[in-house]
Design goal:
about 220 residues; alpha/beta; Rossmann fold; six-stranded parallel beta sheet; 7 helices; globular
Length: about 220
Amino acid sequence: MRRSTKALISAGILITLPVLATWVSERKLNANAWGRLFDVIEGTPHVPVALVLGTAAGSASGRPNAYFVNRVQAAAALYHAGKVDHLLLSGDNGIRGYNEPMDMRRSLMELGVDSNRITLDFAGFDTYDSVVRAKRIFGQQRLLIVSQRFHNERALYIAQANGIDAIAFNAAESRTTRTAWSWIRERGARLKMWVDVLLNVDPYFLGEPVTLGEQVLPPAVGHGG
């Protein structure tokens, strides 16, 4: 076999394998999420605790991040409709001055959510950590996950793999068309998810158990409500 033919075959395999793996991954996540994703509040079953997945409050341009705004608004609407009793806000607080859980808490309180019905997870560094910590640190066996659909599909699979009975509410997407980079980024996140699930890795940080509603925030964090 000529070298050029071998090179073409090798190139074909290198192109085909990632495409095939992506296709299988999408089919598996979609099948797992079937019947467990909700878009309308009235049709969403009541679940005592909602896990709201964090993201940056602002975009790179300095404007409010539509993904953040829509998740917070969805969580508040579910709370006011009596679909959830308590909100577990999980996000990244690994860098000084960057605090996704506190940003969500502040916004939710502005939308009329009682601060006593909010608990913060400051070590939700990624989706896997947020979901696993909801069970192992915050003691939740059943959850209503709140994020955008593409994110919920991944979170639901992580929940199932960790023995959590979960459904999800799809917050509105951003009105801005998703870029090729955001699509690639999500595929990378899904690849990481498969590795985490298959290896049954621990979250980056665990710590002591926390009872919902009994969390004591530091004065500087809890100031204002």
